[in-house]
Specification:
The complex is a heterodimer of chains A (301) and B (270). Chain A is α/β, with parallel strands linked by helices and 301 residues long. Chain A is 33% helix and 30% strand. Chain A has 11 helices and 13 strands. Chain A has helices spanning 48-55, 77-82, 99-110, 115-124, 138-151, 168-183, 195-199, 219-224, 240-244, 268-275, 289-298; strands spanning 8-19, 22-33, 37-41, 63-68, 84-87, 156-160, 187-192, 204-209, 212-218, 227-234, 249-255, 258-264, 279-284. In chain A, strands 5-6-7-3-8-9 form a 6-stranded mixed β-sheet, with helices on both faces. Chain A has a 4-stranded antiparallel β-sheet with strand order 11-12-10-13. In chain A, strands 2-1-4 form a 3-stranded antiparallel β-sheet, covered by helices on one side. In chain A, helix 4 runs antiparallel to helix 5 (138-151). Chain A starts with 7 loop residues before the first strand and ends with a helix. Chain B has 270 residues and is mostly helical. The radius of gyration of chain B is 20 Å and the shape is elongated. Classes of the chains: A alpha/beta (301), B mainly alpha (270). The A-B interface holds A 53, 56-60, 77-79, 81-82, 86, 88, 90-94, 96-97, 105-111, 145 and B 1-3, 5-6, 8-10, 13, 16-17, 107-109, 111-112, 114-120, 264-267, 269-270.
């Protein structure tokens, strides 16, 4: 996808949202292309839901520009919302309606739906549509919101913490639905604070903290920035000066011929040092993305 | 809203959401009217009450709607339409308007609705229509019970004056309901909407009832919507058309401004 090209589903430039003296979003840029699944990660209070509500024109930006499908949602809100489906993070459904009643209610706005699709989704999500929403558990209410989002074919799914309250089985089912939506050409903007769920379906990830984007890229790119625990046993004395000069190696400990530590980013400098010396044993652990993201969350923005 | 079905649904769903409270208000007001009228035969024959009222100062009698309590018009005015019925219909309408706008918004229940392909103004106006529909139900129900009760107990009064009076009660409710919608459009704070609008409703009655007792304040009575509605004594004399307009037109204007304000600000999402 080329920035500014016709494949842009979401384009956000310099979005700022203040609530009085509180700066919820402090100037972020976003791009989501057609058929792309973008994970929107960040701790609670990072500004994810505020950004999403600006996309839906529920909140008006303090500054910056938002375009959905090339349209301004503040001016063409009806047209843009017709092309997307939304699962709110904080779910409040009308109490008096059953799941089926809620489907019927939204049909008036969204048009007819595929009845077989409804039955299939209800079955996959193990959802009883005859029960009033007030009698549903939080997990079942969440499933109902997912059913409503996936029932009508849309070009964009905006999902704010969609698996909150779902059991692992349903989380798997949800990821299946996201993959199917992408295969059908839909774009998905998936907000979460759980990396493991996002990295399984997202093409790209944007990490938000304190209202700013602190990292973005493909999961592979972020994996390249990840931390790895390394454990090296040299066949001779440890080249201490070279080890101490290694960029990105921290928490290093030298114990006899053994060196342990944590490498952030590329392993190339370490490998270059090891190549010059005899090595008896080398252990590099799988990158811990969760740890990487926790570090991103914790660093000052 | 894109389709007729969508527009209809946007009104019907909130209307049905209020069905319990709406029916409760309807039954309460209808019961009050029917029970009050049932006492008419006792009032009609009790000359002692009229004599006791005649002992009171004329200003007090006027202030509390006690004049001619032994006549059908005086009886209905003093017992129902001087205060209690307009107050109940007004209070109910304010509650409906607040419940469907500020209270729903404050509770975050509008988020899913406004994420649909609907305009903010459309949603606000649809909810205003739903509240108005309940006002119409209350007004029509009150009128029907009033007329039927009059027939049953033999309270002889011109139906046209009863219709005018009850319609004015409904319009007074619409005025304050519109005011509630205006405040809700500006600020989605249910407590603020209820407090401010009910304060205006009650203050209007106080102005109408008590200001005539004071020479310096007497002329200010015309500032009260209650005076606009009932200052012409609609149970006794024909109502001037401007009284309907001066209540109905602000209600429409308030609602329109509320809808515009709602479309221009952030939505409260809980």
């Amino acid at each position: 996808m080329t920035p500014g090209g016709s494949g842009e589903v979401i384009r956000v430039d310099g979005l700022v949202k203040d609530y009085g003296p509180i700066h919820a979003v402090r100037g972020i840029d976003l791009l989501v292309g057609t058929g792309e699944v973008v994970g929107f990660l960040g701790p609670n209070g990072a500004g994810k839901s505020t950004t999403i509500r600006c996309l839906l024109d529920l909140l008006r930006p303090t500054a910056g520009r938002i375009m959905l499908f090339g349209l301004d949602p503040a001016r063409d809100g009806v047209a843009t919302r017709r092309r997307l489906a939304y699962v709110p993070g904080e779910l409040r459904l009308p109490d008096r309606l059953s799941g089926g009643g809620l489907v019927a209610s939204l049909t008036a706005f969204r048009g007819p739906y595929d009845r077989r699709r409804l039955e299939t989704l209800a079955e996959r999500l193990a959802l009883d549509l005859s029960r009033p929403t007030r009698q549903l558990s939080s997990g079942n209410r969440r499933k109902l919101a997912l059913l409503l989002a996936f029932l009508w074919p849309t070009e964009l799914l905006v999902l704010d913490e969609p698996t909150s309250g779902l059991d692992p089985l349903m989380q798997q089912e949800f990821l299946g639905l996201v993959r199917e939506a992408r295969a059908g050409g839909s774009s998905v903007f998936l907000s979460s604070h759980v990396l493991s769920e996002v990295q399984r379906v997202a093409d790209r990830v944007v990490v938000l903290r304190d209202g700013l984007v602190v990292a973005s890229g493909t999961v592979a790119e972020l994996r390249g920035r990840a931390t790895r625990r390394v454990d090296v046993t040299f066949g001779a004395d440890v080249p201490v000066s070279e080890i101490e000069a290694l960029p990105g190696l921290r928490d290093r400990r030298i114990d006899g011929r053994r060196v342990t530590g944590v490498v952030t980013g590329s392993l190339q400098p370490l490998i270059a040092v090891l190549a010059r010396h005899p090595v008896d044993d080398l252990l590099v652990e799988e990158p811990d993305l969760e740890e990487t993201f926790l570090e991103l969350y914790e660093e000052p923005a | 809203m894109s389709t007729i079905a969508g527009r209809l649904r946007a009104v019907v769903d909130p209307f049905l959401a209020l069905r319990r409270s709406g029916l409760l208000w309807l039954v309460s007001i209808a019961a009050l009217v029917a029970l009050t009228v049932a006492f008419w035969p006792a009032f009609q024959g009790a000359s002692g009450i009229s004599r006791a009222i005649d002992q009171l100062p004329a200003s007090v009698v006027d202030a509390f709607g006690l004049a001619e309590l032994g006549t059908p018009a005086g009886f209905l005015r003093g017992n129902l339409y001087d205060l209690i019925v307009p107050l109940l219909i007004g209070g109910a309408t304010v509650g409906f308007a607040n419940g469907l706008t500020a209270a729903d918004e404050d509770a975050g229940r509008l988020e899913l609705v406004l994420a649909q392909p609907v305009s903010r103004q459309g949603v606000f106006l649809a909810r205003s229509l739903a509240a108005t529909a309940w006002l119409v139900v209350l007004t029509a129900g009150t009128l029907a019970v009033q007329v039927a009760s009059d027939r049953v107990v033999g309270l002889a009064i011109d139906d046209a004056t009863v219709v005018a009076t009850v319609v004015l009660c409904g319009l007074l409710g619409a005025f304050h309901g519109g005011l509630a919608l205006l405040v809700a459009g500006l600020r989605p704070r249910p407590g603020l909407v209820l407090g401010l609008t009910l304060a205006v409703l009650i203050a209007g009655f106080v102005v109408t009832a008590l200001f005539p007792l004071s020479d310096p304040l007497r002329d200010l009575v015309h500032l009260s919507p209650w005076d606009w509605a009932f200052g012409g004594d609609p149970l006794r004399s024909p109502t001037e058309p401007w009284r309907y307009l001066v209540l109905g037109l602000p209600a429409i204007a308030f609602t329109t401004v509320g809808a515009v304000a709602f479309s221009r600000r952030d939505v409260e999402v809980g």
